[in-house]
Amino acid sequence: MIKTDIARTVAAVLCTIVFSTTCVLGAVGPATATTAAPVAVHTAIVA
């Protein structure tokens, strides 16, 4: 029983780390890609 609890805990921690890393890289990747090639930004002033 103890071994299965430890295995589940380790699996949950690993899944959390992998998921968090994926989310961070998914957010940072596009941000660094857009700064590498600047694009003209058009802003509209709405009154």
* Structural class assignment: mainly alpha
Residue ranges: pLDDT <50 for 5 or more in a row?
none
- What form results from the Cα inertia axes? rod-shaped
Number of discrete helical segments? 1
Average pLDDT score: 79
Percent helix range? over 70%
Termini Cα gap: 66 Å
Please give the largest β-sheet. none
Number of strands: 0
Order of helices and strands: H
Keywords: Signal
Organism: Sphingomonas aurantiaca
Protein name: Lipoprotein
Signal peptide: 1-26
Describe the structure in brief.
This protein has 47 residues and is mainly alpha-helical. The chain contains 1 helix and no strands.
List keywords for this structure.
47 residues
Give a verbal description of the structure.
This protein has one helix spanning 2-36. The protein contains 1 helix and no strands. It is rod-shaped, with a radius of gyration of 21 Å. The protein is mainly α and 47 residues long. The relative contact order is 0.07.
Topology of helices and strands:
Blueprint: H1 2-36
